[in-house]
């Protein structure tokens, strides 16, 4: 775990913290001095991340969280403020792709099906986790951040919140919602010193993308679409989160930080 002091004295909540981008963000935040509350539905993996952070000298605790549950969010926010006296950063990273969770290897070129094949239940699940979960977390963080004199909310969207593709409309809709929601929240709470920004990853190697990247045809297509010639890593995105959570980004709000190896520049 790299160390620094870019978040010294800050308290941060990281959702989706048991794996992938969330786990790396928790490690990076702790390495730079933040006290981190790692949240996920996977308690075993989440606890293992916290233990690894502690063994490296960082300060982290794990709390189970279903980001679609309003009461769980309220309890988490209240406990965080009661324990640490403040909340400085929230990273809404938890998300789902819309792919069949039983699918180990993606069989089509996109993670989700065509619009005409999408069920209402599938649509609602993707929107609930990706969009409503971001809303609930952001809303819950406003009051404690206001009491702390400001803060940084970082919402993970996607390049799919900026551009379209041949399928998986629910995922695109949810990530587009995160993008515009973040701008609206940024404007509303700028007077309170609360900054709200979105991050838009491209093709990153994570557990969520592994079924797609395991398919050689999908991997080749995505790799070819990335001008920098490699897939992203969780650390690539975590370092963007670190910047936006730090005081270095004190004049940045309502922005879109695209970290995609150049995909959307083509």
Description:
The protein has 266 residues and is an alpha/beta fold. The protein has one domain (11-257): NAD(P)-binding Rossmann-like Domain (Rossmann fold), CATH 3.40.50. The protein has helices spanning 20-31, 43-55, 70-84, 120-148, 169-189, 210-214, 216-224, 234-245, and strands spanning 11-15, 35-40, 59-64, 89-92, 151-156, 194-201, 256-259. It has a seven-stranded parallel β-sheet, with helices on both faces. It is globular. The model has no long low-confidence stretch (mean pLDDT 92).
What is this structure, in a nutshell?
The protein is 44% helix and 15% strand.
- Total beta strand runs: 7
Summed over residues and divided by their number, the pLDDT gives a mean of 92
Please summarize the sheet with the most strands: 7 strands, parallel
Oligomer: single chain
Q: What is the percent of helical residues?
A: 40-55%
Q: Pick out the low-confidence regions.
A: none
CATH superfamily: NAD(P)-binding Rossmann-like Domain
Q: Identify the CATH architecture.
A: 3-Layer(aba) Sandwich
Helix/strand/pairing category? alpha/beta
Number of helices: 8
Distance between the termini: 34 Å
Overall outline: globular
Strand order of the largest sheet: 3-2-1-4-5-6-7
The third-level CATH topology is Rossmann fold
H-E order: EHEHEHEHEHEHHHE
**C-alpha-based Rg, rounded:** 17 Å
Strand content: 5-15%
Number of domains: 1
CATH level 1 name: Alpha Beta
How does the SSE layout of this entry go?
Elements: E1 11-15, H1 20-31, E2 35-40, H2 43-55, E3 59-64, H3 70-84, E4 89-92, H4 120-148, E5 151-156, H5 169-189, E6 194-201, H6 210-214, H7 216-224, H8 234-245, E7 256-259
């Amino acid at each position: 775990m790299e160390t620094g002091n870019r978040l010294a004295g800050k308290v941060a909540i990281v959702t989706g913290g048991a794996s992938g981008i969330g786990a790396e963000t928790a490690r990076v935040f702790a390495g730079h001095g933040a006290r981190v509350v790692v949240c996920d539905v996977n308690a075993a993996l989440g606890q293992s991340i916290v233990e690894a952070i502690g063994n490296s000298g960082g300060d982290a605790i794990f709390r189970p969280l279903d980001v679609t549950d309003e009461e769980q969010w309220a309890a988490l926010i209240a406990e965080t403020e009661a324990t640490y006296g403040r909340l400085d950063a929230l990273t809404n990273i938890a998300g789902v792709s819309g792919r069949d969770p039983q699918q180990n290897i993606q069989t089509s070129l996109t993670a989700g099906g065509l619009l005409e094949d999408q069920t209402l239940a599938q649509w609602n699940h993707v929107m609930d986790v990706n969009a409503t979960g971001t809303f609930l977390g952001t809303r819950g963080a406003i009051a404690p951040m206001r009491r702390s004199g400001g803060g940084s909310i970082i919402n993970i969207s996607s390049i799919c919140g900026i551009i379209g593709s041949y399928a998986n409309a629910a995922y695109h809709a949810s990530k587009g919602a995160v993008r515009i929601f973040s701008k609206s929240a940024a404007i509303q709470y700028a007077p309170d010193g609360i900054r709200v920004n979105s991050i838009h990853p491209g093709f990153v190697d994570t557990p969520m993308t592994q079924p797609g990247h395991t398919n050689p045809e999908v991997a080749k297509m995505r790799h070819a679409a990335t001008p920098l010639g490699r897939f992203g890593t969780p650390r690539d995105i975590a370092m963007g989160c670190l910047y936006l959570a730090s005081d270095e980004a004190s004049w940045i709000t309502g922005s879109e930080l695209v970290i995609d190896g150049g995909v959307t520049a083509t």
